[in-house]
Amino acid sequence: MSKFEDPVIISNSISGVIANRDQCPAIPYTPEEYAAEARRSVDEGASQIHIHARKPDGTPSWEVEDFRAITEAIKAECPDVIINYSTGAIGVPVEKRIEYLDACRPDVAALNMSSMNYAKYSRRRKDFVFKAVFENSFDEIIQFITAMNDLGIKPEHECFDAGHVANLDPLIDMGLVKDPLQISLVMGVTGGIRPTPRNVSVMADQVPGGPEGPNNWQVIGISRDQWKLLAAAITLGGNVRAGVEDNLYLPDGTMCKSNGDLVSKARQMVEDAGRRVASIDEAREMLGLKPAGGN
Predict the structure, then answer these.
(1) CATH number given to 8-287
(2) What is the DSSP letter of 209?
(3) Domain extents for the chain?
C-alpha cells in the first residue's frame, strides 16, 4: 500500500504553558474550557490531545488535582480520545511529574530525549524572550520510561535534534522500549534543529527502522514555520500535531479562534496531499494502545 493511502494521526497540543490569553483568547484555562477545545479539535479530526495542566487562573500546574480535573472534563466530552500528558518541566522534580502519571494513568506521556539549551529569541528585541537549560539526562529518561512501563503508559519520545532520535538506540538495545515507538520531531525551538523542510527529512531518516518503518513519527512545528514543516511530514509519510501550544496563527497570518481552527487546517493539508485522517480507533491501533475502554 502506498504511504499516501496511510492514515495520518493528528494530535492537538491544547494549551501549552508559556502563551497566555493576552496573546490568544483561545487558550483554555479551566477544565470546562479544555473540554470545549478538545471537542472542537476532535470534531476536526484530532485523535490525541496533548495536555499541559493549568490552574483555572491560567498558571501552569504539575498538581494531580489539576491534571485529573482537566482529564475528566475532556473524557466526559470526548470519551474515546487518546490522552497524552506532558512530563517536561524545569525545576520540578521527576518524582512529582511521575506522581500525576501514577494518579491519572493517561494513554501516552511525552518524554524529552536529551538535555539542551531551550529558548525563544526575538530579532526585534535583539534579546531572548526566555532561555533555560532543559535537563533530561539518561538517568531521568530511564526513570521515566521505567515508571511508564510499570503504569502501562506509552512513551512519546520528543526529539529536538537529530542526535536526540539516536538516543533511542541504547534504550531499544536495553529492551526498555519496543515497537511501535511514538516519536515526535520537534522543530523551531532555539537550541534545537532549524525548522526547515529539509531537516524534517534529516530527522525522519534517524527514526529507528526509517521513516516508512514500523514506528510512528510526527512533526511538531513551533511558531509560524509550522505549516511548511507539517506539509513536509505529510509528504514523507509522517503524522502531525497542531494546537495553540505550538503556533497561534493560520497560514494567512490570521490568529486562530480555537484549537479546532488549527486542527482543521492540518486536516485539509492531509486531504490535499491524498492521504486521510486516522480515526481514534485507528490511531490507537497504530500506536499500540488498548482500545478505548479496554482492559
Answers:
(1) 3.20.20.70
(2) T
(3) 8-287
Label residues 90-118 b or e (16+ Cβ within 10 Å = b): eeeebeebbbbbeebebbbbbbbbbebeb
pLDDT digits (tens, 9 = 90+) for 61-98: 999 999 999 999 999 999 999 999 999 999 999 999 99
Separation of alpha carbons 259 and 41, rounded Å: 6
Which H or E run includes 40?
helix 31-43
Query: Quick check: pTM over 0.70?
Result: yes
CB 157 within 8 A of CB 111: yes
From the centroid of its chain, how far is CA 149?
Answer: 19
Query: Going by C-beta distance under 8 Å and a sequence separation of 6 or more, which residues neighbour residue 145?
Result: 111, 155, 171, 176, 177
68: left (phi over 0), alpha (psi -120 to 50) or beta: alpha
C-alpha cell at 236: 514523507
Mean pLDDT of the chain: 95
What is the Cα–Cα distance from 89 to 106, expressed in whole angstroms? Answer: 18
Q: Is residue 79 exposed (0-12), middle (13-18) or buried (19+ Cβ within 10 Å)?
A: exposed
Which alpha helices (DSSP H) does 54-167 contain, by range? 64-77, 94-104, 138-151, 162-166
- Backbone torsions φ then ψ of 247, nearest 5 degrees: -165, 135
- Of 282, 294, 240, 273, the C-alpha closest to 41 is 240
List, in order, residues 6 or more apart from 18 with CB less than 8 Å away: 130, 245
Give pLDDT tens digits for 50-64: 999 999 999 999 999
